[in-house]
């Protein structure tokens, strides 16, 4: 018995197997999710834009409340530059890997043909959603797609992805593009890109998680906050509001209407936010040669993370960083622009209207 199968034998899959699975289709990837209890209903509601009647080749098992009889010797997973605190821990199994979310205690078993989450799942639904979406990312990366830290929107024959440092405004920017008639939401925080003529983009079914500053700055979104909370936030200094971390889930179909989500499209444009709140120069969107701007490419590239197993069976090494070459090849033919100057979402929305010709 392999070490991954040994871990699997210590868990009880029968509650998940007894529940009716739900199926997801995202671009070329099909998943079947086996989940008991109320968690299933919550996930079905969340993933409604990706639901399918066809069983997927990849099976995901969710086991709320279960735990291993003995804890392994966890190793902390190195976080990306600029990130502080312990988030993930790993334990290698040779043919598989255990991953633990340090704060919540949610644990995952990842191996070829095995994707299992167990622990306090019902109290950490966002973590479960991310795990399901990670299976889409893993499958596509093994097939040659490159993972970008970006949001994206598509419509009128163009698809725009936007990257930037965390908290740089990419979610706010992409939602301003969603205010344009005829656009569709493609992805919030992860975009896969692949070389082609034209290059291709693929999103995942992850609803935007936005902070109060994004909500207050867009009249369409202000109803997400109670009048009392809006008043409290509006009384805060602008700098404090920008830095406030208070995530709210935005359900695209509820805010923008049905038919406003699409997961795949040809990629035409990529903007990298390199602006600043204290800049005096006006906002400027200018085309660049990405090969000569490693700083901008660094904002686009995203590590596959501890869940990723390469086609040859190796798991992503701890502390590894992405290689630029495959990204430059995947983005060949995409018009890449740097957004510089001061942070001005109205100016960026005007650039978006010109780009999408609306």
From TrEMBL:
GO terms for molecular function: kinase activity. Transmembrane segments: none annotated. The keyword Iron does not apply. InterPro entries: HprK-rel_B (IPR027597), P-loop_NTPase (IPR027417). It comes from the Bacteria. The keyword Transferase applies. Signal peptide: none annotated. Gene3D superfamilies: P-loop containing nucleotide triphosphate hydrolases (3.40.50.300). Keywords: Kinase, Transferase. This is HPr kinase. It comes from Salipiger bermudensis (strain DSM 26914 / JCM 13377 / KCTC 12554 / HTCC2601).
């Amino acid at each position: 018995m392999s070490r991954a199968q040994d871990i699997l034998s210590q868990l009880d899959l029968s509650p998940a197997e007894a529940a009716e699975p739900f199926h997801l289709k995202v671009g070329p990837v099909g998943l079947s999710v086996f989940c008991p209890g109320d968690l299933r209903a919550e996930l079905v509601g969340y993933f409604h834009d990706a639901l399918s009647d066809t069983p997927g080749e990849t099976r995901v098992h969710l086991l709320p409340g279960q735990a291993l009889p003995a804890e392994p010797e966890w190793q902390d997973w190195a976080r990306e530059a600029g990130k502080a605190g312990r988030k993930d821990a790993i334990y290698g199994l040779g043919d598989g890997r255990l991953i633990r979310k340090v704060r919540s205690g949610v644990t995952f078993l990842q191996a070829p043909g095995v994707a299992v989450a167990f622990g306090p799942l019902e109290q950490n639904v966002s973590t479960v959603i991310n795990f399901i979406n990670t299976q889409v990312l893993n499958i596509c990366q093994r097939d040659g797609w490159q993972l970008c830290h970006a949001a994206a929107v598509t419509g009128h024959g163009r698809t725009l992805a936007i990257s930037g440092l965390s908290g740089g405004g990419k979610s706010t920017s992409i939602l301003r593009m969603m205010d344009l008639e005829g656009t569709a939401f493609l992805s919030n925080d992860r975009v896969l890109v692949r070389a082609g003529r034209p290059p291709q983009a693929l999103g995942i079914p992850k609803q935007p998680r936005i902070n109060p500053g994004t909500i207050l700055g867009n009249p369409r979104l202000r109803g997400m906050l109670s009048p009392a909370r809006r008043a409290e936030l509006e009384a805060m200094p602008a700098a404090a509001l920008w830095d406030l971390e208070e995530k709210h889930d935005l359900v695209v179909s509820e805010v923008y209407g049905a038919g406003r989500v699409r997961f795949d499209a040809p990629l035409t444009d990529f903007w990298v936010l390199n602006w600043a709140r204290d800049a005096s120069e006006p906002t400027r969107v200018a085309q660049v040669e990405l090969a000569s701007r490693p700083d901008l490419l660094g904002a686009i590239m995203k590590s596959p993370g501890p869940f990723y197993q390469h086609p040859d069976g190796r798991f992503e090494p701890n502390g590894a960083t992405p290689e630029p070459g495959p990204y430059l090849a995947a983005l060949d033919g995409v018009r890449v622009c740097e957004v510089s100057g001061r942070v001005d979402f109205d100016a960026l929305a005007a650039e978006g209207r010109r780009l999408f010709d609306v």
